[in-house]
C-alpha cells in the first residue's frame, strides 16, 4: 500500500486512500488478464484521523516525552499501509515530519537495503517545491525518515474545507507540480503516489511530499503480495497494470488527476469501489466536466492512456504560462495558514511534552474485567500554561476541530462543533462480560431478548441479561437442499436464512427462541430450465412484507414476499450489484443503477422515479422517517417520500459516507475522514459535527450500518492507538464525546481486541459491544 496521506503539515485530518489493487472479478465487464474488475461486493475507502503514537512506534518514559531516534515526538499526524507519520522536534528545535515504517516491511529480506538507497536518493532531491529530506535510519528497529515539517494543509483538505480552485489557482498549482516532478525524477525517483493528500498548499506555492521511499515499499509489497501500490483515481494505467512499468510519465498522469480534483472536487474517474475506479482509469475516458475550458486540452493530454503521448513536465510548465502562487490563497486559506504557522512557532519553543493516558492506569480494565495498568497513552501538548487545539496553536488530543462555530464546506449549515477536554474518558466497567464464539465477518443484532451473533454459516443467540448462550440457529431443510443454509441476519422480529435446491430457492425465518417460523419458496426454475435464483439478502421488512435481493445466472433481482403466506407479491430485475431497497408503510424505495424509484409495496407498481441520484458503483444506503427518504453515498440527499421531490443535500464528500441512522428528527452518520454528523431531517442543517478522537472504521459498502443510536447517545467503532479496535460514545444532543473503550494493553490481533471491528448494538440505555472473543454490556449514558 502507499504511504498515508498523513502529511508533513499541521495536525488536521488527513485522508488515507491507498488500497491494494488486487480485487475480485465481476461478470458485468469483459475479462482482462491484469486489470481488476468491479467486485460483486462493495468496497470502502478508509481514512485516518490524526491520533497519538502507539508504544510499538517508540520507547516512552513514564511521564516523559516520547522519542524516535533523536527526535522528540509530539503527535501522530496519520497513518496508512506503509507506516505512521509523526510531528516531532529535533535536538536543534527544528520541526520534522517523521515517517516510521511498519514492522512487516522492515522484517522483509532486502527491505532495509532498498530503504537505505531510496532515502539517500531522496536526500539528493532539491527544489523549491519539495521539502528536503533531513535524516533517515534504515537500521532502527523500525526504519524512519525525517523531512522538513511544512505548516500547511494538503490540497485534499483545502478543497474539502474551502472549495475548488479558480483557473488562476489551478495554473499556479500545475506550475508548482511541474517544477517539483523534474527535481524528483532527476534524483532517479518516480513518485508513484502523487495525489491531493501528498500536495501541501503554502503561501508561496505547492509542496510535493512523500517521494522518499515509495519504491522500496512498492518492491516489498509486490514481492509479498503481488499487489500494486498507489491510490485509486490517481494512478496511471501502466501503474495499475504493473508497477514496474511506471516511469516519470506516470507522475504526469497523476498530475493531471490532481488538477481535475482541484478543479472539481473529485478525480477524473469518479467515485465508488476501488476496482470500479481502477477499471475506469484503464478503459474509460476521464471526466473533465468542471475543468476550465482553457486548461482542458492540457489536462486531457496529461491523462492520455499511452504514456508516450503525455507531455513532459517542461511542456506542461510552458503550456500553463505565467502563474501567481497567490492565486492559490482562496478565501479562508490565508487565515488557516496563519493559525498553522502560529501552531508551529509554539511547538518550536514548547517545554518537554508530558504524557497523559486515556484513563488512569488504576482504572483501566481488560476485556475480562480484571484490573491492569493501561499501556495506551494519548499525547497532548501544553505550552505557556495553555492547552491548545490542533491547527490553532499546538496539538490537542487526536486532531479535534479547532473552531466551535465553523464546519467544513460540505453543503448544509454548520451547526455546532463538539470540543472535548484534553482527553476522552475511558468508559465504565462492563455490567457483565461473557465469552463469545469467534465467527468470521460477524454481525451483532438484537432479536427480542437475545443478541444474535451471526455470519453466513452460523448464528448464535446470547441472553441480553447475562450474556450466556441461549441457542444456535438450526433449520429444517427441504429434501432437495444439499448444501448448508446461508444466514442473512435480523430484520424486525425475525432472523432470516436462505437455502438453494437448484430448482427452488428458499427463505426461512427464526424467532427469538430459535424456533423456525416458516420456510417459503421464493424463487423457482425458469421456463428455459435454468437454475433458480438464490435469495442473497433480506434488504428490508415492513409489516408482513420482506424485500429480498436475489442473484443468479440471469443477474440480480428484487422481490417482495408476504411472510405470512409465502406468496411472492412481485419481482423485478435490476441493472447492477449496487442496488438497495428500503420498505416503509405502503412504499418500497429502490435504488437501481443510479435511479431512485418508489414502488407500491404489495403490487410493485411504480409511483415515481428520479434518475441520476448517484453514480453507478457508489453503493448507497437508504433510510426514512416516513416523510423523507435519505440516500447516502458520497453525499446525503433527501427526497420527499410522497412524490420524490429533492429536498436538500448535505455532507457532500469525495469518499463514501456511512449509512444514516434516523431518530427523533435527526439523521446521524459519519464520513471517511472521521467526522460524525447530526443533520436536521427537515432541512438538512448540520445540528453538530464532531471529529472522532480516533480513526473511525466501518464494515464497508452495503454492510455498513452507520452509527448505533439510542435516545441519548450514539456509538461508533474505531481503530485506536496501535491498531487495536475500540469504540467511542458521543452524546446525541450536541456530539460531545462521553467516553471511549479500548482494551487495555491489547495488541492488534490479540484476544483482548483482535483485528475485527467492534460490533455495537443498543437496547435502551444498555450498549452491547462485541470484540472477536468477548461480549460486553455497558451502561451507555455514563458521562
Radius of gyration, in angstroms, nearest whole number = 26 Å
Helical content class: 10-25%
The CATH superfamily name of the domain at 55-328 is Transferase(Phosphotransferase) domain 1
Content-based structural category: alpha+beta
Beta-strand segment tally: 47
Work out the strand percent: 25-35%
Spatial shape: globular
- The total count of helices amounts to 11
Q: What value does the average pLDDT take?
A: 77
Low-confidence stretches: 1-65, 216-227, 353-422, 698-702, 745-753
In the CATH hierarchy, what is the class of the domain at 55-328? Mainly Alpha
CATH topology of the domain at 55-328: Transferase(Phosphotransferase), domain 1
What does the largest sheet look like?
7 strands, antiparallel
CATH architecture assignment of the domain at 55-328: Orthogonal Bundle
Compute the separation of the termini in Å. Answer: 39 Å
Sheet with the most strands: spatial strand order: 1-2-3-4-5-7-6
Question: Which terms summarize this structure?
Answer:
disordered N terminus, 783 residues, Transferase(Phosphotransferase), domain 1, Lipocalin, 31% strand, 11 helices, 5-stranded mixed beta sheet, 7-stranded antiparallel beta sheet, alpha+beta, 47 strands
What does this structure look like?
- By secondary structure, the chain is α+β, with helices and mostly antiparallel strands.
- Among the domains are: 55-328, Transferase(Phosphotransferase) domain 1 (Transferase(Phosphotransferase), domain 1, Orthogonal Bundle), CATH 1.10.510; 341-404, no CATH class; 473-618, Lipocalin, CATH 2.40.128.630.
- The chain contains 11 helices and 47 strands.
- A 7-stranded antiparallel beta sheet has the order 1-2-3-4-5-7-6.
- A hairpin with a 5-residue loop joins β34 and β35.
- It is globular, with a radius of gyration of 26 Å.
